[in-house]
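Agenda item 2: coenzyme A complex prediction
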Amino acid sequence: MGIKILSTGSYKPLLTVTNDDLASCVETNDEWIRTRTGISERHMTNGEPTWYMGARAAERAIDEAGIDPLDIGMIICSTITNDYFTPSCAAVIQRETGAANAAAFDLGAACSGFVYSLDTARRFLMTDDRLKYVLVVAAEQLSYITDFTDRSSCILFGDGAAAFIVERSDAFCTSWLGCDGSGMNHLYAKVAHDPHPFVKDPVHTDDGTADDAPVGVLVQDGKEVYKFATKALPHAVKMALEGTGTGVEDIDIFVPHQANIRIIETAAKNLGVGLEKFYTNIGHTGNTSSASIPLAFDEAVHTGAVKRGQKVCFVGFGAGLTLAAMVFDY
Ligand SMILES: CC(C)(COP(=O)(O)OP(=O)(O)OC[C@H]1O[C@@H](n2cnc3c(N)ncnc32)[C@H](O)[C@@H]1OP(=O)(O)O)[C@@H](O)C(=O)NCCC(=O)NCCS
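Presented output:
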């Protein structure tokens, strides 16, 4: 059983940060960033919290679907940049949207998080007849955990949010979710906190991350992540299609995680699919982690680049290291 995406909505912060703007923080230049990543500019919050971006995107999706928010039975918010340890971003979005009958929780699977969330929504819809609509949101404020002194990573990220209203349907849908935790040390952001007052001799543990790594910001081994991503994309798509009788050639449009245009180009080649089938908007969004796939899809829907009846593939990869793909009839 599949899902029907009734509507989509998004929120892009009004503040735009260009490559030239970044060149005033770190030693870099527009040409280097564009040729290595495909990014020209990205949106960043001008103080809007993550919940605010998620709620505005959700309101747009609810308006477009023309549904009563009280008929939403569940809100799943994918984020790695919530404003609070607790409550969840989804709880705040529930308050903002008036979806008072909805269960609400966050899901953290980094840049694969929206595919994980959409698949979770599908499985809840499959098993609970009382559930009518699920609101699936991705809201990310990467600028919150970006190290603006690290030129190899700060050039990549942006902020934004997008939301879908989904319901159950009989349309084709298949998915696959994966993770390779042995690569967690290639991309991480450590939580900043002081030990409680009773700690004496702290237990020494080794998670493979650098002891002197900066805390509270993203640390990555760009080359390792690049290698992983170019293999993860084709692998996740093939795993999702396995045993379904549907082939890669049947897919009309791929909406990949918008990490880096070179990753997408190489991964498309590895999958044996022409780049023209890949929808990209990274040039003006940067990498917005789990918000990137729904942001790109919302844009594709509203510009007519994707149409009802087409077979669509979402494919994500990121910290964890996680990877996930979903193929469905739109
Ligand atoms: C980060 C990334 C763009 C770096 O590109 P790269 O071709 O691997 O570049 P390198 O790290 O080999 O660096 C090459 C040179 O450029 C320099 N450099 C790095 N960032 C730079 C910048 N923003 N501007 C100018 N020069 C830069 C390096 O210092 C290095 O200089 P050196 O040769 O004098 O030491 C690339 O590794 C990448 O995209 N990785 C995946 C990251 C990603 O997508 N993460 C999120 C996944 S969800």
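Discussion summary: The longest helix spans residues 222-241.
Owner for follow-up: CH.
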